Amino acid sequence: MTVPKIKKEDSVLVAIDFQERLMPAMKNQKDVEETIQKLAEGWKVLGLPVLLTQQYTKGLGTTVESLREALGDAYAPIEKTSFSAMGEPEFVKALEALDKKTIVLTGVEAHVCVQQTALDLLEAGYQVFLVVDAVSSRDNNDKKYAQRRICEAGAVATTYEAVLFELVGGAREEGFKQISAIVK
């Protein structure tokens, strides 16, 4: 039996639509925003690639400031109008160029853009790890059933802290001290 693991050399963080005009309507908005910020900071420490989308930026605004700052130079949003990021040719091209098969997936809304992206990624042969504390919807029921559907389709549910420590691998590894400081 193959056990799905998040491997540093094969992982990309995909952050879906954490936008200024969308986030205030999300359940637990403050907690979700803090979580994605910490995950992005840890990801930056580890020097791993990030793909970030923005759904119809003209109407929903840019990515929230805390995430833009956490990403720093890695902030390079991909504009989309398709709910699934996989429906956006620029996203698919960027993902294929990275040549990685493990997707650490975060975003809003869980039951729309995140779910459709997850299902399309799974269908395309990617291993998807859904970071449940970095995903939200306006309604908790929508989030709950989206997470269930995504995982029943083959994704693995996890948390941001579990992801970061799995990527580090041990207390003597490079990045451990910085990651420990981020999650505190």
CATH-assigned fold name:
Rossmann fold
CATH superfamily: Isochorismatase-like
Count of helical regions: 8
Q: Distance N terminus to C terminus? A: 34 Å
The strands making up the biggest β-sheet line up spatially as 3-2-1-4-5-6
The chain-level mean pLDDT equals 97
* String of helices and strands: EHEHHEHEHEHEHH
What is the CATH domain class? Alpha Beta
Radius of gyration: 15 Å
Fraction of residues in H or I helices: 40-55%
Relative strand content = 15-25%
Short summary:
The protein is of the alpha/beta class and 184 residues long. The chain has helices at residues 29-46, 57-60, 65-71, 89-98, 110-123, 140-152, 160-168, 176-183; strands spanning 11-16, 50-55, 78-80, 102-108, 127-136, 156-158. Strands 3-2-1-4-5-6 form a 6-stranded parallel beta sheet.
Could you describe the 3D structure shown?
This protein has helices at 29-46, 57-60, 65-71, 89-98, 110-123, 140-152, 160-168, 176-183; strands at residues 11-16, 50-55, 78-80, 102-108, 127-136, 156-158. The chain is an alpha/beta fold. Helix 1 (29-46) packs parallel to helix 3 (65-71). A six-stranded parallel beta sheet has the order 3-2-1-4-5-6. The protein has one domain: Isochorismatase-like (Rossmann fold, 3-Layer(aba) Sandwich), CATH 3.40.50. The chain is globular. The N and C termini lie far apart (34 Å). Helix 5 links the parallel strand 4 (102-108) and strand 5 (127-136). Helices cover 45% and strands 19% of the residues. It contains eight helices and six strands; from the N terminus they run E-H-E-H-H-E-H-E-H-E-H-E-H-H.
